[in-house]
Structure formats: C-alpha cells, structure tokens
Design brief:
Layout lengths: L2 H8 L5 H13 L4 H16 L10 H17 L5 H11 L2 H29 L5 E5 L6 E4 L5 E4 L4 E5 L7 E12 L8 E5 L2 E5 L3 E6 L5 E7 L2 E5 L6 E6 L3 E6 L4 E6 L2 H5 L5 E7 L1 H12 L2 E5 L10 E6 L3 H12 L1 E6 L2 E6 L1
Parallel strand pairs: 5-6, 15-18
Antiparallel strand pairs: 1-4, 2-3, 3-5, 4-5, 5-8, 6-7, 7-10, 8-9, 9-12, 10-11, 12-13, 14-16, 17-18
C-alpha cells in the first residue's frame, strides 16, 4: 500500500475510488501499531461526524453489534478445546477486531464512508458576495437576514451569501449606513481594517477613508467597537445614539464625541456637506460624489487651505461649483470629460 495514499486517507483527502482501495487493503493486510492507532482515531471521529438523517448505519452501534455476535458465536462453538482457546486469544488482539470489522462491515462501511466523505467534499467555503460602487453611484443592499445597507459612492463591501448560525459578518471599505435587523443570537459585525463594530439590532454609519481613518456614528441602539489584535481583542468603546468614535490610524488614537447628523448622515438624503474643508478635500469629495475628474489650475492661487463650510441639497455639480467659486473666486468649465477650475 502506498504510504502517500494512506496519509491521504487519514487526512480525509481520498477520492471515493481511493477510499475503496484503502478499505479493501485494510481487510486483507497487516497494519503497523501506528496505523492501528490512526485507525482508532478515525473511527472515533466517525462517531462525531454528521451523517445524513436518512442514513441509519451508526458506526459505534454496528461495531458493538458485531462484537456481540462474535461473542455469541464463540460461546456456542463446538470446536476442540485447543481450537477454542486459539480463537479466544485472537479475539483479544486489536488487529483481529480491525480485520473482523473490515471483513463484515466493508459493504456498509463503504456506503457510510462514501456518504460521509462526499458530504465533506461537497462542503464548500461560503459564497462571498462583493458589492462595489463607482464614484457618483450609491446602492441599497437588502441582506437575507432583513438588514439593509446603503453603500455610498466609491465604496465596497463583502459578506457571505448565507450567514452562519452564530454571526453576521461584513467587511467594508469606504462609507455605508447599516440598518441592522434584530437577532439576539447572531451579532452583526462590520470589519474595517483591524477595527470591528458589533451590533444586535441598531443603525449606524461607518466611514473608512482612503487614509485608513475611521468614523463610526451611532443613530439608534447600541454598538460595541473593538480593536482586533492577534493576542487579544481590546474593547475601545460602547456608543450610545448621537455619539461618534473617530479613530486615527497613524497615531493609533481615538476619541468619542457627539456629531452633527446633517454632516455625518445627510449623504443618504443627497446632502453634500463641507466643514472647514481645504481645496484638496473639496475636490476629492466632489469627484467621488459626482463621478467626475476635476483638474485645478492653481496659477495665481497661493492659499489652498480654504477652510470652507457649506451644504448643498441635491444640487448639480455646476450649481455646487458656482457656489464655491463665488466664495473662492474661481470659474469652471468642462473640457474633454474633465472639469477645469481656474482662479480669477
């Protein structure tokens, strides 16, 4: 017998054809003590394996039944004393039992092993769903558990098509608002880098920016925010409605404070909000919001800090740029699919 094939058998990697070959070999050949120990372990594992409900062959019960039948056969045997003694001695040898089981139960074992093994082969990794939004596009995703995710432009989420019986886990890059369906047995966990946000039934907003900074704002309910570490997870905060946790990845520091709902949550209603924003922040936000490319001719403009605050409700890009340009003294025009900003 090929040792590689035996190793595949012990590791549960055999094909059905290889599995039959190994079991047939066990029926007719000697095995080493190490292989005998491994077989015993495999047998014990078989007792713990989930077999389809309509399959009635229980390995442990079959083994005990075989042992009982062999004992009855021995007790009633009319053979000579020395022959009977030889049989008794063999019955106490573990190798005999393994061969006896293989010989008598081989057809049943093949059926059971084939079902159990093919069930393992059919157990696939969970199907992962990935949703990405391009700049200028927002999406609403309905999950199987009843939860809703509003994914902002230029963002991405991944999640299993079918949640496990114990948790509902999501990965997020960018910004999204979560309306979580209540399920006390399965916490809803959103992973953003090494920070996780856990809820049972609540609503909250997460903004995980390109700079890896993170803002988690709670609208309703309660969430627990944890920093995930290889050695030990550390709880950072429990948020109550109206609170926001801001985490700076570079300094590894965070703070919890109240937040402006229009500033943080208004994007869902089409509210474009700027607060003390510099030129680069405004350009980047406009590109993502409207799905355009903006080029700035900074000739004649020395101060790009701007410190601009303003909000626009469902306005076109032209209207927004006219409003900002009036304050910052620039004009804009579209050329070859790009928006060009020039200062006066």
């Amino acid at each position: 017998m090929n040792k590689h094939l035996l190793d595949r058998f012990y590791e549960g990697k055999c094909s059905p054809e290889e599995l039959q070959q190994v079991l047939t070999w066990f029926q007719s050949n000697e095995i080493t003590p190490e292989q005998e120990l491994d077989l015993n372990f495999v047998w014990q594992e078989a007792e713990q394996t989930d077999i389809p409900i309509n399959h009635s062959h229980d390995p442990k019960k079959l083994f005990l039944k075989l042992k009982e039948q062999l004992k009855e056969t021995t007790d009633s045997d009319d053979c000579a004393p020395d022959e009977h003694q030889a049989l008794v001695i063999k019955l106490h040898q573990p190798l005999f039992w393994l061969k006896a089981v293989a010989a008598v139960l081989l057809p049943l074992c093949l059926v059971w092993a084939f079902i159990a093994y093919t069930s393992t082969l059919k157990t696939k990794s969970p199907t992962i769903v990935s949703v990405t939004t391009k700049p200028g596009i927002r999406k609403t995703i309905k999950l199987a558990d009843g939860s809703t995710i509003i994914l902002n432009a230029g963002s991405k989420i991944t999640y299993p098509k079918d949640f496990t019986p114990h948790t509902r886990e999501i990965k997020l890059w960018g910004e999204a608002f979560f309306e979580v369906a209540k399920d006390s047995l399965r916490p809803f966990i959103v992973h953003t880098g090494n920070i996780s946000t856990k809820a049972l039934g609540t609503s909250f907003n997460i903004n995980y920016s390109q700079e890896n900074n993170l803002a988690i704002a709670l609208a309703t309910g309660l969430v627990e925010i944890t920093k995930e570490k290889p050695e030990l997870n550390k709880r950072m905060s429990l948020l109550i409605p109206g609170q926001q946790l801001y985490y700076d990845h570079h300094s590894d520091k965070y703070q919890v404070a109240s937040y402006n709902r229009t500033e943080v949550l208004g994007w869902q209603q089409g509210i474009l909000y700027f607060k003390k924003a510099d030129m680069k922040q405004i350009v980047r936000k406009l590109e993502n919001w409207y799905g355009v490319t903006i080029e700035v001719d900074t000739y004649g403009e020395k101060d790009t800090s701007w410190n601009y605050t303003g909000e626009y409700h469902n306005e076109t890009l032209d209207k927004v740029l006219e409003g900002i340009g009036f304050v910052k003294d620039f004009t804009h025009q579209e050329t070859n699919g790009k928006v060009i900003i020039k200062f006066n």
